[in-house]
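Section 5: illustrative case.
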């Protein structure tokens, strides 16, 4: 039986059910649901998804104990 997109979202969200901190659990479940909604809305190709993952990987590689590029990325994204 094939998994529907909604079932995939529910399964990913459910994977955080045992997270002890209620606020962290709420945050992770919300992140999963919003990310899945975004993917369904945008429907990126595999090539586009690979570019996005590569971008995040390169941002991560630039981080060290004195440089937090994800903080700068959040600024760029207006968060």
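Designed sequence:
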């Amino acid at each position: 039986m094939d998994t529907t997109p909604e079932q995939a979202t529910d399964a990913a969200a459910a994977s955080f059910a045992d997270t002890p901190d209620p606020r962290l659990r709420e945050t992770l479940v919300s992140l999963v649901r919003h990310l899945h909604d975004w993917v369904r809305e945008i429907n990126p190709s595999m090539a586009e998804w690979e570019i996005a993952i590569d971008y995040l990987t390169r941002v991560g590689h630039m981080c060290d104990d004195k440089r937090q590029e994800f903080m700068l990325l959040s600024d760029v994204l207006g968060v």
